[in-house]
Amino acid sequence: MKFYVTTPIYYVNDVPHIGHAYTTVAADVIARYKRAKGYDVFFLTGTDEHGQKIEKSAKEKGLSPKELADKVVVNFKKLWEKFNISYDHFIRTTDDYHERCVQEIFEKLYKQGDIYLGEYEGWYCTPCESFWSKSQLIDEKFCPDCRREVERVKEESYFFRLSKYQDALLKFYEENPDFVKPKTRMNEIISFVKQGLNDISISRTTFRWGIPVPFDPKHVIYVWFDALFNYISGIGYGYDHEKFKKFWPADLHIIGKDILRFHAIYWPAFLMAAGFELPKRVFAHGWWTVEGRKMSKSLRNVVEPNRLVDTYGVDAVRYFLMREVPFGLDGDFSHKALAHRINGDLANDLGNLLFRMVTMTIKYCGSKVPQPTDKRDKELEELALRVVEDVDRFMNEQAFHKALERIWELIRAANKYIDVKAPWALAKENKKEELNNVLYNLLETMRLVGVLIYPFMPEKSAELLEQLGITKQPAKEDFTWGLLEPGVEVKKGKPLFPKVDEKKIAEEIEKEITETEKEPSEKEPLISIDDFAKVKIIVAKVVDAERVPKTDKLLKLTIDTGSETRTVVAGIGAQYSPDELKGKKVLYLANLEPKKLRGIMSQGMILAADDGKKIYLPTLPEDVPVGARIR
Ligand code: MSP
User: Fold this and answer.
1) More confident residue, 35 or 507
2) Is 331 strand, coil or helix?
3) Which residue, 210, 228, 372, 550, has most beta carbons within 10 Å?
């Protein structure tokens, strides 16, 4: 039996962050579980290295795109080592076998008519080299990135006939309702496709960093067409037929919810066109916020994955990521919550249990696993077997949090069992047979817990099992009751999970965040002359003015910019009356994003001095022409 699992391939214009770690840990958990269950697993991860974004980011750093990629790949690989990620292959989209695969498929689809040459028409910003749709533009003519004026451009482009696959996709979703998980996401995809699919542009001529279209090299292949095919080139398509045949189709693509459309619509359509089987499942997980806030660049430091592992240990972090938030939903990463899980679930419930077990075995049984008898009770055994079954079901549904919840039910039951059976009392009363039975039940439960936590916490699983005298990595035959061999020596190890100071951690992080948030206002950021060039301030003339009803300060001004008439809502009504303003020349910020104020669309802003108490409009010379620019 085989199992093929993938992560998205990560863009190399970014350093690895907690979002990347999340997807990759989830894929590792399922890969390890399936391997332990006897599957022949292939686990693929890697990096997405082409495209305009990478080209731009490399240029800013004074590197070639490949140099940038080579650097960032090292960061990813180091981090995955630190997280004990057991991938089988790390693919880079600049690898030659991948480039060949993409070109071959592109050409095949072109020859069979699924790709055709057309014209891509849109609003283009030359400095940013970006196409925008009309709705993205500011004032219907300015680039949303740099605010310069865009132009209507037609560019030759290859298109993929996505529209042709609309019905086939809908049929596929109907026949495979579990293709996308969670279910709500499947429904979103279905309604999106039902609204109708347009053909998509899959080549560009405006930049160079990409795989060239083989028969027309002035075009480079669109980065998503390139990237998605990593899932087949990474397992040997075009160079290792046996491997490819064995592992394709993928059993599970794990991705974030933001890239679901690419995986649930484009990807199956590309595959149908190319004549491949379709993947069995795409699971879209949610997004993390950090300490209750959206993950900004500066907040990322607070949850930088290397730092988390150094502070708390790799398995505690892996556990937290998989336990804290139901897989598929959004969640919040907070140090306080992590510390709480470490002290509660890990140190108290699990660590203490192991410690008590081993200590009692040493004390009452001469350090040896005792021999149970037929008279032993089956309470823990029955629960443990049910848990093993449930965990299997939850793992196959990617409900990692539920699997862990269930394992912890077993752990808590074992803790309770000790208190109820009180082995120390049995020892005192010299009830040897019952004592042996109770301790055996507990030790065997511990062994099964060690096996079940293995995919989530491989290092801690090994430490736990070692204390029970087991050095073998969990395998298929270990997921059952009664394997612990009487007579085997147990060993006391170091505490499985040292406790952390929750209060201190919470305070330190709070302080760090407050400082991060203060920074921009305290250190006034400098802007470049190019930044200033984006600001369009001109002389304008007020032609009409009236008060905005039910406000003290707001005036609705009609102004002449020299080329058109515009409406501006200005907060200068406390000092200036409408009559005073009519005919007055003012400084006007012309390319500010329009905004609705009190139901009026305000286009731009009137500039005035503000000392916190009063507003002062600057006086301009009589003869200054309307439309003159301030530079
Ligand atoms: N290169 C594409 C994927 C191509 S796959 C054929 C890409 N790369 S990415 O580096 O931008 O993102 C990779 C993954 O990180 C995505 O699955 C995304 O959802 C995930 N995350 C990025 N930020 C995240 C959070 N704040 N929280 C959780 N995951 C997030 O997209």
Assistant:
1) 35
2) strand
3) 210
DSSP-based three-state secondary structure for 9: strand
Q: What is the mean pLDDT of residues 127-144?
A: 79
3-class DSSP state for residue 118?
strand
Q: Which amino acid is at 391?
A: V
What is the structure's pLDDT at 521? 47
Q: Whose CA is nearest to atom 9 of ligand 1?
A: 10
Q: Which of 491, 439, 488, 447 is CA-nearest to residue 467? A: 491
Query: Distances in Å between the alpha carbon of 229 and those of 19, 100, 105, 162, 250?
Result: 22, 11, 9, 16, 12
The count of other CB atoms within 10 Å of the CB of residue 307 is: 11
Whether ligand 1 lies within 6 angstroms of the CB of 68 is answered as: no
Does the CB atom of residue 125 touch ligand 1 within 6 A? no
Backbone torsions φ then ψ of 208, nearest 5 degrees:
-110, -20
Residue labelled with tokens 């006086």: 619
Ligand 1 lined by 423 (C-beta under 6 Å): no
Q: Are 449 and 352 in contact (CB under 8 A)?
A: no
Residue with tokens 């940038």: 68
Q: How far is the CA of 22 from the centre of ligand 1 (A)?
A: 10
Pocket test for ligand 1, best of 10, 68, 235 (most atoms within 8 A of CB): 10
**Is pLDDT larger for residue 140 or for residue 422?**
422
Helix (H) or strand (E) holding 60: helix 52-60
From the CA of 256, how far away is ligand 1's center (Å)? 6
Is the minimum distance from the CB of 300 to ligand 1 under 6 angstroms?
Answer: no
Q: Picking from 139-153, 171-185, 585-599, which range would have the lowest pLDDT averaged per residue?
A: 139-153
Would the CB of 400 count as within 6 Å of ligand 1? Answer: no
Distance 73 CA to ligand 1 centre (A): 15
Q: Please say whether the beta carbons of 495 and 463 come within 8 A.
A: no
Q: What is the pLDDT of residues 278-290, one digit of tens each?
A: 999 999 999 999 9
Residue, of 631 and 545, whose pLDDT is higher: 545
Whether residue 401 has its Cβ less than 6 Å from ligand 1:
no
Task: For residues 323-336, give the mean pLDDT.
Answer: 96
Residue 518: pLDDT band by 50, 70, 90 thresholds? low
Q: Is the CB of 22 under 6 A from ligand 1?
A: yes
**Looking at residue 595, what is its pLDDT?**
83
For residue 36, with 0-12 CB atoms within 10 Å meaning exposed, 13-18 middle and 19 or more buried, which class applies?
Answer: buried
Res. 453: pLDDT tops 70: yes
| Ligand 1 lined by 48 (C-beta under 6 Å) | yes
Rounded to the nearest integer, the mean pLDDT of the chain is 93
Nearest CA-CA partner of 91 in 231, 222, 213: 231
| Domains present along the chain, CATH in parentheses | 332-478 (1.10.730.10), 529-630 (2.40.50.140)
Contact 309, 83 (CB under 8 A): yes
Which protein residue's CA is at the shortest distance from atom 16 of ligand 1? 256
- Is the beta carbon of 23 within 6 A of some atom in ligand 1? yes
Question: Ligand 1 within 6 A of 256 CB?
Answer: yes
Give me the amino acid identity at 219.
H
Rounded (5°) CA angle 542-543-544 = 100
Position 520 pLDDT exceeds 60: no
